[in-house]
Amino acid sequence: MTNELDIFVGNTTLIDEDVYRLWLDGYSVSDAVGLRVRSGILEQTGATAGVLQSDTMDHYRTFHMLERLLHTPPKLLHQLVFQIPPSRQALLIERYYAFDEAFVREVLGKKLSKGTKKDLDNISAKTGVTLKSCRRQFDNFKRVFKVVEEMRGSLAGNIQQHFLLSDRLARDYAAVVFFANNRFETGKKKLQYLTFGDLAFCAELMIQNWTPGAVADSQLDDMDVDLDKEFLQDLKELKVLVADKDLLDLHKSLVCTALRGKLSVFAEMEANFKNLSRGLVNIASKLTHTKDVRDLFVDLVEKFIEPCRSDRWPLNDVRLFLNQYSASVHSLDGFRHQTLWDRYMVTLRSCLLRMYHD
Amino acid sequence: MPGKLKVKIVAGRHLPVMDRASDLTDAFVEVKFGNTTFKTDVYHKSLNPQWNSEWFKFEVDDEDLQDEPLQITVLDHDTYSANDAIGKVYIDIDPLLYSEAATVISGWFPIYDTIHGIRGEINVVVKVDLFNDLNRFRQSSCGVKFFCTTSIPKCYRAVIIHGFVEELVVNEDPEYQWIDRIRTPRASNEARQRLISLMSGELQRKIGLKVLEMRGNAVVGYLQCFDLEGESGLVVRAIGTACTLDKLSSTAAFLPACNSPSKEMKEIPFNEDPNPNTHSSGPSTPLKNQTYSFSPSKSYSRQSSSSDTDLSLTPKTGMGSGSAGKEGGPFKALLRQQTQSALEQREFPFFTLTAFPPGFLVHVGGVVSARSVKLLDRIHNPAFVGIMGNTRSYKLLDWNSFNSDEPETRDAWWAEIRQEIKSHAKALGCHAVVGYSESTSICEEVCILSASGTAAVLNPRFLQDGTVEGCLEQRLSWQPGFFSIGSEKGEVDFFPQSQDSSSLLGLEENLPAGCGFCHIPYDELNMPFPAHLTYCYSCRKQKVPDVLFTTIDLPADATVIGKGCLIQARLCRLKKKAQAEANATAISNLLPFMEYEVHTQLMNKLKLKGMNALFGLRIQITVGENMLMGLASATGVYLTALPTPGGIQIAGKTPNDGSYEQHISHMQKKINDTIAKNKELYEINPPEIPEEIIGSPIPEPRQRSRLLRSQSESSDEVIELDLSHGKKDAFVLEIDDTDAMEDVHSLLTDVPPPSGFYSCNTEIMPGINNWTSEIQMFTSVRVSRLSNINLTNQTLNKNFNDLCENLLKSLYFKLRSMIPCCLCHVNFTVSLPEDELIQVTVTAVAITFDKHQAVQTTKTQVEKSSQRASIDNEELLQFPLELCTDTLASHPFSSAKEHLESTSSNSGIPAAQRATSIDYSSFADRCNSWIELIKLKAQTIRRGSIKTTMPVEKASPLTEGHFRQRSAPACANSTVGVVKMTPLSFIPGAKITKYLGIINMFFIRETTSLREEGGVSGFLHAFIAEVFAMVRAHVAALGGNAVVSYIMKQCVFMENPNKNQAQCLINVSGDAVIFVRESELEIISTQQPIASCQPACSGGEIAT
């Protein structure tokens, strides 16, 4: 005797958090039943495997029906078919949009296109995240991207408004969207050590300072997704800091004077100053080229982080150096682009500090 | 022209994309009522259109207002081709027609399409301006309130309970009309939905008219059902209990309004009758009979119906009056006779209520039921026989003219069954039937009609106490006069017992009889069946049976020990496939065996639980192509008034075999262990009552009882089931045949619910009274396919048993997060949609309770119950003549008899042997009232059926169940928009402040892409979720926040996986209400109502 049809419908939709997680993780019903059996639930409740199978199927069906609504979370709030308490609604949405660290690192900065989607089985194999779950996460990225791409106003704010995510998760999505839009390269081997947290941190700072929305008077054109073209253009002006030999020497002496005796790696710093400064300024001046924008993080690591790391700079020394390095520019009389420098360096300094770890 | 309906279409949202090119929709709305249609403007290119239409006004008769639903259709405008329908909303405007209910319907309704399901929502506002209608010739019954609740609704007080009302309407099913061959499935489904909506409107209006004729103002326990008879049509039928209700002012909700009963009664005198007799179609009916007027369309006459009543199987003076002389003093006899004769005057003294005002129910006789097998293809009107051969041409006929006589055929069928029920009740010495319900099971052209209820004696004391009121004499004086007029249907009222009079007599509402309802109503010497009687274990004065079966809820004043539990009997019987009459004969031959088996199972399981009474018993017999299914559900309890049940003894017929003996003793041990375990589980620990208290010998609680499977008598044309097996003494469950072996096994395989769970099918769980506010109503459906190889009764039984048990297990598992909790009102429905398919549908509500309090209360309850016993004794003594005389009359005899028994039981015979030697009347004492008459009858066409009214006045204030007084912890402040649904008549931890009207909805859903919608499970899951959503939306639009007494009356599911198609019909009903949390109520009463506090409830306050 087989059950052709087996359903349970509550006036309040029952959500089992554990089963929801299994479903999100992309397990098939039979795998999920197996995992639940292993969790010892049968012993705790005295249920049979058949009961568990039926229960799992039922939850999966419910989630499947909810999935359509989860694609546009405000619909979940206003729909009438499933009566779900608000706290549960929030949980459903939050968990649905949550993503795996391993997965996001693979996709971050890639174009959210069909091509990438075809790659998902490779990513799945590499990360151990099931293909189903990869697809969901990828589709989430893409969906959020499409909705907020052309929108004005704060990126994280828009995401929060249209997808009802928590503050934290909305900011993470802002980073994902920002990376995807600017196609920053994050997949190179030397960048592997960077966590999503590091990159999201950088993205947030860049969104705050380097996009058109960051400039107070450009409220009318408050776009958070693209970098501020004018700003990138202006960054070329910084080249004088390394091109002009006098200015470079003056800058170096100012920094060295200030830091003498304060750094454990003073000698290495002094020896490397010109290289480091050239690196940082050249990165800035090249940002007009899309290709160089994409390589921003690669350049930062190659031109600054790796040299410092090879000389075993402690983090605190890096901080002291970067502070002094940016501050000293204000004492360079011949340099006129103080505001521009600050807009560039404040963000870059924080990013570098965040990225400076093993 | 007494009403103006106003409709405003505000906006839509989440509409589907109808134009693929633009991914948008150009939506507009058609608003239709009757034959008038209005349209909104087209709102271009939006999925969230804002129409903000003007008020569309329909000027209509109130008759139409009651019958017609408001039909709102959302369409997509298309310049070049036909406009595409997006979906529809049907709004029943009935709740706007009575003054106390909703004043406006306003809110978001799901737009429903029978093919695509819900497609967005639409915001609608509906109002009705009713002109005061003084037209005496009116056909409408606006103002009569309908309640699905089977008790007096919480914020009302019953002034008079008039009695049974019923009606049925027949029509041709659009699905089977010729036009169905050329129209789309959508059009066909919509025609059906609309027709049923119309028919239920009409039915409700007609019932309302009957209520008005009885001078009632409400129908309580309203149950409306559809019979989908296929080719032969579609029947919508309803039964209910007519009442005159008084709204309790919300502040003094529990105080009776003392002057209202008398005020109500002033309206009653007959000469003020508003109905002119021109409308009663019986020409010679005297003036006073006009209480009964028919709608002109009805052709049957009054005369025919009165002759109808003469068919009554029982004499006017029932055995109750005959036995009264023996039982007690002349005064009591007189009273009895009066009550009884009063009740006998009505054709059917039935009540669909399952819970009653305190004191209403005096004695309960037991369950009475009747079934009848009918053939559907024979019901056509003889006048059309000529063309019957050609179904095609018959379908072209206008059904209105064609079917005009059909309702009467069905009426006659039901009248027949009701007569049987009535005579069964009489045989039990009862003059009324309570907890009455009717059902059908249809397979092809065979239909089983079933009715069941609980035979009961209603309180004659109400009549007696009424003498205090001045009007009584007047009443009594006209009563005989009225009857002499010759109407069989008297408008006899019971007299209200006002609060004052009852307190004069020292009757406090919270001092109930406790055990009185258990006392036997029938005459001990002239018992309708052999039964074993003992003195009541509570009062020691009256006789009680040792087991009691009823269809009602446990009376609030009943004292129980421990907790109750759900008890189910499940049974399948194979049947040969046959046609027409042969089929019907086969079924009716099987029925008695099934009834017997079901009863045996119930009995065994009850004993296994160590309990002695069943409440809420519902037996469903379902007919399929090749089998019959029986499913009985009830809630077992241990009533303190009844004796401790004996155990179950097993015996084999081949005692020589040593291993066999061993096996038997092993089984016996297992059974005994199970009984002991169950007693512990359900906390059944009856106090040992020392014999001195009674002063008369009582039989020692029996150690064992035996059950014997006897071969039932051969089936005659009329089979009367004698479940006592004649005078054969039967105590032992013999396990010789494999059948019985299996029975024993199935007894033991029923696993109790996991710890922390209880279940019952009554409103409340006996023994739990500290509900917390969390509730979860659910519907679960399972369809199982039987492997068609070697189907035997045994494998079938096992399969069916497993199906039900697994379903319950799944429920327990799913709801485990609510522990400790109780599944209440567990309602199983079985259907056999196809040859090898069994469909089981369960609707129930899980309610959490506070475990710690439970322990305390059960303790105190036990204490109370023992106290109560003594109080009852005292109290009973205060009733002059009535109960004492009873005792005096019956005592000497019975004590003598019991003395005999006790001597025999003390005569040193070992217990085991004694069990076989004592002559207990075996089975019948358990079945108590289990009279079954199953008939296959030729079609008798009876014209018209008259329904009688039964007014019973009562003036006791509404006493809420004790659990309600307990304030629930202030948790879960309900968020706006949440609508609770429950099959119960109350919401734990909350107070219902207003009833907004009845919800009665019928939906059809069909798909031609079954696989794409997730298969049958996905399809039905989505559909049921959508039905819930539409119910909630309607309730919310009425301003309510809950549905109580919710019931899914029908869930007909058909599939055709090969064609990738499925169809499902669902019919649900309930009462829309506004409730306020008790915790919030306190706040409101102490402070000013705060605006922020739950809009729904504050809205309710304003509206009242």
Automatic annotation (TrEMBL), chain A:
Superkingdom, natural source: Eukaryota
Pfam families: FIBP
Coiled-coil boundaries: none
Transmembrane feature ranges: none
One term of GO molecular function: fibroblast growth factor binding
Stored InterPro entries: FIBP
Annotated GO CC locations: membrane; nuclear speck; nucleus
Name the record gives this protein: FGF1 intracellular binding protein
